[in-house]
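U., I forgot to send this yesterday:
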Amino acid sequence: MLTHVIELAAIYIVFLLLLAWGQSYIIFPGTRGQTRSPEIHNWAFEELNLPVDGHTTCAWYMPIDHPRGVVLFSHGNGGNMDMWLEAVGPYRDLGFSVLLYDYGGYGNSTGKPSEQRCYNDVRAVWRWLTETKKISPARIVLLGRSLGSGVAAQLATEVKPGAVILESPFRSISHMARRKLPFIPTSLLLRHRFNTESKIPRITAPILFVHSLDDTLVPYAHGQYLYELANPPKKFLTLQQGGHDEAYYYCEDTYVTGLKAFLAPLFP
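Result:
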């Protein structure tokens, strides 16, 4: 009996060690390289290679004529920015230029991804917009989807954008991990926490939360919880169907209508 308990304990410890070692691969399953560019949509773009932490962060600035503002798009943890081009389309259609970038270790961005690197990546592209392009912070929308919601929320505590949009946001990586692995002391093992719920009360810009009722990866309740923490002015847009990634396409009319209603008074 004692031997059996020792064996189980050893297996559990090994599992914990593997989880601690491999968490970066779970949180940041991005792909390297690029297979396409904004040219596939015939969009004009400027390719950026910004210095960050001794490495390079790649980005595409996709301007339109006479824009209402600029959307700084922090994408989710999957793929890389060439796989997120279709998500950019609705914002261009609404009259916004877009800056889409890759985190360290994603696409052609060099180095390795981490929570701190993600924050430094978005800070670098913000500086490029505000200092190099001389775009007023009041004309910038910080948009973060899924993992990117944690990145955008951090930047929103440091700067004063015109608006913040968090799509499919989560309370923290710790909450997500406890939901998936309730028998594991994940809070002790995590190196990347993205504790969004601690940042929401510090954001003073107008903020929109977007979440699907059918999101099985990040529960709808996470978005609701964050909304309650947020300062006004704030809005919540519910997508009635579709999972974590699909809802934005299944509910495109609702999504675009909600974006219009939120952005119209802020960016006339």
